[in-house]
Amino acid sequence: MRKLQRLFEKRSRIVIGLMSGTSLDGVDVAVTRIEGSGPDLHAELLGHASFPYPPELRALLLDNSAPETSSVLDLSQLNFRLASEYERAVRTAAAQADVKLADVDLIGSHGQTVHHVPDRIDCGGAETISTLQIGDPSVLANLLDVTVVGDFRVADMALGGQGAPLVPYLDYVYFVDPDETRGLLNLGGIANITVIPPAADFDDVFAFDTGPGNMVIDSLARILYDEPFDESGHHAAGGEFDDAMMAELLRDPYFEQDPPKSTGREYFGTPYAERLVTRCQEIMRNPGPNDLMATASMLTVFSVYQAYARYIRGRNEVDVLIVSGGGMHNDYLMERFENTFAPIPVRSVEEYGLNSDAKEALCFAVLAHETINGVPTNMPAVTGASRKTILGKICVPQ
After folding, report:
1. For the purposes of burial, counting CB atoms within 10 Å of the CB of 138, is it exposed (0-12), middle (13-18) or buried (19 or more)?
2. Residue 29 φ then ψ, to 5°
3. DSSP letters along 206-268, please?
């Protein structure tokens, strides 16, 4: 364990973070230099790259993220296949950042979520929660000969937490401000919001998954246009949504569930999008594809705002909403968020010096760094866990 002891003693570390999100479109890699801990942590982004999954691999992941089409054989194979995909991504991103792999101290890998069950359901006669991220960190550690921290969600869930969201720790160390109450909105496949009061302590942070971010929009883009996503919100901008339809959608049980809460593809995946299309055709008058896309897009906007109005505004009215994630590139979404949240200003995370596309990968570099520091990074006020705990499994190659 001398390697781990030396890693623990280092003041400054080169850490690579990996994030492959609920959109199942590929892996983001952040090459970083990190020192310090908690509010005194400093992270320098040395490089960032995104690597799309090959079409065959993405199709297999989509199939194995749905109970009706998943296979034990496929999941076993994908657990190793993704580790190899991550290996190539790390090697390429490090080379592009002019960082030698031998100089990399640590890798933090979120893995690919294929199922997330944050609320107890029966399993062999006992009520159980669970989560499954594949792309095994031990395989990755031995392929690269670099220590890897992975499987970040399970420790929190073992203590009764939701295991998500985990980005609020990065939000806290990077964005806490002495004067402003800041709302951090991440628009990935799922949308989550973090609220940081002025001069907040660790336990003052409040966060949860609000519902779909890009997930339903992307599903409809594939269903209606055979496109991977609605680029810049072009299709949605050409359509109109229906108030009655929107009111029905916003009565979904997930939106009415009190935090802490988290969700994913198992709830807002393709079957949800298909039901949305069917219901829109029943309620709306001859909706065209653009109208359906506008409806899905506004569902993201209104579900976030409803969550803010219902669960946040009464306790911490935000001074600014700071947006990151892939949805930040959707001009239609951003314009609607600005209109809906006015007079609260809506700004890009990049105005604060943070690369939006690198943020989640950076988060897992930070979480891995803090795991080696022995610092708990789950937030019980966010996840509902019974106490703080150190996240992740440390995989040390010989």
Report:
1. middle
2. -125, 130
3. EEEEEEESSHHHHHHHHHHHS-SS-GGGHHHHT----HHHHHHHTT-HHHHSPSS----HHHH
pLDDT confidence of residue 53: 96
The two three-digit tokens of residue 372, written as one number:
């080696």
- The pLDDT value recorded for residue 58 is 94
Whether residue 196 contacts residue 170, with contact meaning beta carbons closer than 8 Å, is answered with no
CA distance 361 to 395: 19
The pTM of this model reads 0.93
Question: Shortest CA distance to 109 belongs to which of 391, 356, 365, 370?
Answer: 365
For residues 301 and 321, give the distance between their C-alpha atoms in angstroms, rounded to a whole number. Answer: 13
Residue 308: CB atoms within 10 A of its CB come to 22
- How far from the centroid of its chain's Cα atoms is residue 242's Cα? 29
Is the Cα torsion angle 165, 167, 173, 179 positive or negative in sign? Answer: negative
Is beta strand 320-324 parallel, antiparallel or unpaired with respect to 346-348?
parallel
Which domains are present in the chain?
A: 2-163+356-395 (3.30.420.40), 178-344 (3.30.420.40)
The answer to whether the CB of 232 falls within 8 A of the CB of 178 is no
Q: Which amino acid is at 37?
A: S
What is the predicted pLDDT for the residue at 145?
97
Q: How far apart are the first and last CA of the chain?
A: 9
Give average pLDDT by consecutive 10-residue segment, the chain, 398 residues. 86 96 91 96 97 96 93 98 98 98 98 94 96 98 98 97 96 96 96 97 95 97 95 97 96 96 93 96 95 98 98 95 95 98 97 94 98 97 96 95
Tokens 């939106």 identify what position? 255
Torsion angle defined by CA atoms of residues 198, 199, 201 and 204, in that order, rounded to the nearest 10 degrees: -10
CA 99 vs. chain centroid, Å, equals: 26
Strand partners, 325: none
Number of other residues whose CB lies within 10 A of the CB of residue 179 = 8
